């Protein structure tokens, strides 16, 4: 997906994601770190978007690096400096593609949530991202991420139409699922109210793809990770079910 695809989305993203489970992502992360017996000091929020989770991580007292390929998203994230309220250090923001991640120093942990990996459409892309994360982690570093399940991509998102309405923005998401390649093509249309009361229309196109659990585990292990757990829908333990929608992975650098 091109960087330009987030140009308009960045300005309304937080309003559309107001009910997103950021607190649950943070709680799951902290619980998983505790379960694995690690307390990372330096954390990378990969595909951080507008930084809502990034700033929550900062408030835990950790040093945080926010990485995203969209300059527009990062500009919004950096504008939230006031959320720090003196807690923790400032965030270092990096405009990078996760497949080409180069960190200024190795990190103790990398997190990548909100199905960001699903925007990588090929096996090569997923492996490149895993390799870049592995290289960026310190020895025994931890990689936590979530992805859409095959069930969610095909049956929940699938050939569906969704709409969101806020005070000054209306968004329509039209999904078309390609059964041959397993990719869901997403057409986003925004109507954003301007100062004169008129609405401007913006269009963006997104594509997402996922892979079975055993395939993702195989790629992680081939990259040099030890997979500690695979769970679903914010559970810390327990095997994913056939109708689980969000898959969670915890891996550690060997």
In short:
The protein is α/β, with parallel strands linked by helices and 254 residues long.
Distance between the termini: 31 Å
* Rg, Cα atoms, Å: 18 Å
Query: Please, what is the average pLDDT?
Result: 94
- Please summarize the sheet with the most strands: 7 strands, mixed
How many domains?
Answer: 2
Q: H/E order of the elements? A: HHEHEHEEHEHEEEEHEE
Q: How many strand elements? A: 11
Approximate helicity band: 25-40%
Which residues sit in consecutive blocks of at least 5 with pLDDT less than 50? Answer: none
Count of helices?
Answer: 7
Shape: globular
Strand content: 25-35%
Keywords: Transferase
Domain Methyltransferase: 43-141
Protein name: Methyltransferase domain-containing protein
InterPro entries: Methyltransf_25 (IPR041698), SAM-dependent_MTases_sf (IPR029063)
Structure description:
The protein is an alpha/beta fold. The protein folds into two domains: 188 residues, Vaccinia Virus protein VP39 (Rossmann fold); 57 residues, N-terminal domain of TfIIb, CATH 2.20.25.110. The protein is built from seven helices and eleven strands. The strands form two sheets. The protein has a seven-stranded mixed β-sheet, sandwiched between helices. The protein has a four-stranded antiparallel β-sheet with strand order 6-7-8-9. Helix 3 links the parallel strand 1 and strand 2. Helix 2 crosses helix 3. The mean pLDDT is 94. This is Methyltransferase domain-containing protein. Keywords: Transferase. InterPro entries: Methyltransf_25, SAM-dependent_MTases_sf. GO terms for molecular function: transferase activity. It comes from Novibacillus thermophilus.
